Amino acid sequence: MASGRLFEDIPPFPAGLQTAPLYTIPLAGLRSGDEVTAKNTLKACQDLGFFLLDLRGDRLGDTVIEEVDQLFNVGKDLMNLPYDEKEKYLHDAPKSFLGFKPRGHAKIETSEPDRFEWFNIGQDGLLGNTAPQRLPPLIHDRHSLLTSFVEHGQSIVRTINSTLATQLGLPADAFASLQEPTKPSGTVVRIIKAFASPEAEDLRTSMIHHTDFGTITLLANVLGGLQILAPHRPPEDKSAWLWVRPQPGCLIVNLGDAMVQWTGGLLRSNVHRINFAPGDQRFSDRYSLALLVRPEREASMKRLTGPGEDGEDGDLTAWEWEVKKAMALTREPAMMQSKGGKQAATKT
Ligand SMILES: O=C(O)CCC(=O)C(=O)O
Ligand SMILES: [Fe+2]
Asked: Does the entry feature the keyword Lipid biosynthesis, yes or no (predicted)?
């Protein structure tokens, strides 16, 4: 999340909304190996699969706050380029999701068009794992800021991964060794613009409910709009949607489906969506920034711990598994359900 600066000129997040009960995990505690922090992290990742990560008071964290502030401004400039400029970088879905996705290219629950744009910048091109991605000059000029954000974000992800692995009684590098940033993967930096909702007809979802495919997502929000589906409740139940209140100096962290697969369902990947922003915030365009980490393409999706049988998915590579999931979702979008969160004996 950004520093307090980006929160100064925005309408307030309204009081009285039903908000998600999120743990706040201090990055400093995670990095120093504090046992209470580690236990709370595991609990958050089992109960809801979402938590706030407080970056403040940690050297790496303070650097990331600065980078997020700068990238928010880059993201606004990018998304406010004329449409025909952005269109030059149109993604080639479903073959590749890199580049620009225009508003309305996907549907929401009601089959109406979505209300957001995104631009995905691949880690592989940034770090030189593959040929560079073609990017607008405005982004190209900020290459070192982007690579630095990816490297710092990946360092945070590594810490979360080793904390979770250790708490589950696995070798510390059990998850991290399947998602080395220097190996080709579907990992992206994503810049999102969800459009303001001034009219009554805009008061609906911007981005359809979903779970993230990957391992760990680091998300920076300033305006509200993100909602988490309360566990064990159906998406059609309006009262089951919990708002996330963005907090200065904190990132929102959530787990994706790969962590559920590797842990036989011990960890949780929870359904979430972008709704219209609450209160007077709805009159502003909403920008957000995420690092969505995926396993290495060649990583095995075999279960590393947890109950149950592997099933045939355990024989797939991460890339094959992601393609299979994407195809299933195209056929049956209603399959977007939270996964994991099984209770089982863990390290005491
Ligand atoms: O912008 C946000 O708050 C959430 C974005 C999201 O869920 C995604 O890109 O997967
Ligand atoms: Fe997401």
From this structure: no
Beta strands 226-229 and 268-269, pairing class: unpaired
Q: What range does the domain containing 68 cover?
A: 4-347
Q: Count of CB atoms within 10 A of residue 11's CB?
A: 15
Cα(321) to centroid(ligand 1), Å: 21
Tally of domains within the chain: 1
- The torsion angles phi and psi of 254, rounded to 5 degrees, stand at -140, 155
Looking at residue 269, which CATH number applies to its domain? Answer: 2.60.120.330
Give the distance (Å) from ligand 1 centre to CA of residue 101.
Answer: 14
Which tokens in the block code for residue 276?
């219209």
Ligand 1 is surrounded, with C-beta below 6 A, by 190, 192, 212, 219, 221, 226, 272, 274, 288, 290
- pTM confidence score: 0.96
Q: Tens digits of per-residue pLDDT, 125-167?
A: 999 999 999 999 999 999 999 999 999 999 999 999 999 999 9
Q: What is the pLDDT of residues 226-272, one digit of tens each?
A: 999 999 999 999 999 999 999 999 999 999 999 999 999 999 999 99
